């Protein structure tokens, strides 16, 4: 059988949805160390021994809800690749805009040796992508989940950024004084994509990717648990003129901007995603 026939047969047997066919091809290519172009060139060649069993198993896992990134062990984000495995939330494309906005701010400020904090850093994608874009920046990620911290540190070594990017295991909802004491009033940018799915949206969010960790999604009944803590402490960790940058869910923007004002941050505003819905919020510490 050709590789094309093996893949088609696996898709049929697993009853794999058509929108996941590309994911199966990606998993097959990655397992061989091929690019997508390499795969296309080999589709009509005879499949190697053992390929059929692997492809059928991968197709069934995808049909059962495994993200393709869990099967390959890696996720592409901005211009880097980070490690992921079960228990680690796969970084989303819309989160890449946080890296762009944080990077633009740092470039605009043009300060020597800027510092960024990535709170609820998860896979470490934001921290690593920001450091990869800007060789002058040092980044610290704070994350409670041990598996995510382990993946982040491995990724930092993979991409040669372990000297400038550090990941600390700690609870964002607790006091930051111990974990982040060295950065009080010195941070140029605090960036965070915290768990923000509110209770009424949790079930459909979980059903869309059932094997990803619920704890990385759920932000409490209102979705605001992490935002309250981050915004309440942000002013003490930002330098004068420093920026707080958040990914948010639509419908939360007013509450988040009210919190920013309450805790002494200025210039609060929300920004839309490609659909025009509120997806990001920012505010600054006064100069």
From TrEMBL:
Domain Methyltransferase small intervals: 116-200
Lineage: superkingdom: Bacteria
Limits of the Release factor glutamine methyltransferase N-terminal domain: 10-73
Keywords on record: Methyltransferase, S-adenosyl-L-methionine, Transferase
GO BP terms: methylation
EC number(s) given by UniProt: 2.1.1.297
Catalytic activity of the protein: L-glutaminyl-[peptide chain release factor] + S-adenosyl-L-methionine = N(5)-methyl-L-glutaminyl-[peptide chain release factor] + S-adenosyl-L-homocysteine + H(+)
InterPro entries, alphabetized: DNA_methylase_N6_adenine_CS, HemK-like, N5-glutamine_MTase, PrmC_N, SAM-dependent_MTases_sf, Small_mtfrase_dom
Record GO terms (molecular function): nucleic acid binding; peptide chain release factor N(5)-glutamine methyltransferase activity
SUPFAM superfamilies: S-adenosyl-L-methionine-dependent methyltransferases
Alphabetized Pfam families for the sequence: MTS, PrmC_N
NCBIfam families hit by this protein: hemK_fam
Record's protein name: peptide chain release factor N(5)-glutamine methyltransferase
């Amino acid at each position: 059988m050709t590789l094309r026939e093996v893949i088609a047969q696996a898709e049929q047997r697993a009853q794999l949805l058509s929108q996941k066919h590309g994911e199966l091809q990606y998993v097959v290519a990655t397992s061989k160390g091929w690019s997508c172009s390499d795969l296309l060139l080999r589709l009509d060649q005879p499949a190697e021994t053992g390929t059929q069993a692997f492809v059928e198993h991968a197709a069934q896992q995808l049909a059962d809800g495994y993200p393709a990134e869990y099967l390959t062990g890696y996720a592409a984000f901005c211009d880097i690749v980070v490690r992921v495995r079960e228990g680690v939330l796969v970084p989303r494309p819309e989160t890449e805009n946080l890296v762009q906005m944080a990077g633009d701010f740092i470039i605009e400020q043009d300060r020597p040796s800027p510092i960024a904090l990535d709170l609820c850093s998860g896979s470490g994608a934001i921290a690593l992508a920001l450091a990869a874009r800007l060789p002058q920046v040092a980044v610290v990620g704070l994350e409670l989940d041990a598996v995510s911290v382990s993946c982040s540190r491995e990724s930092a070594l993979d991409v040669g950024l372990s000297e400038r990017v550090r990941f600390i295991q700690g609870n964002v909802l607790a006091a930051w004084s111990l974990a982040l004491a060295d950065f009080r009033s010195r941070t140029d940018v605090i960036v965070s994509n915290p768990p923000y799915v509110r209770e009424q949206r949790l079930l459909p969010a979980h059903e869309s990717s059932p094997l990803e960790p619920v704890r990385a999604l759920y932000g409490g009944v209102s979705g605001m648990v992490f935002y309250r803590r981050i915004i309440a402490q942000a002013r003490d960790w930002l330098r004068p003129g420093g920026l707080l940058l958040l990914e948010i869910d639509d419908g939360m923007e007013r509450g988040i901007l009210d919190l920013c004002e309450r805790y002494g941050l200025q210039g609060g505003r929300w920004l839309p995603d490609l659909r025009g819905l509120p997806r990001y919020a920012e505010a600054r510490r006064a100069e």
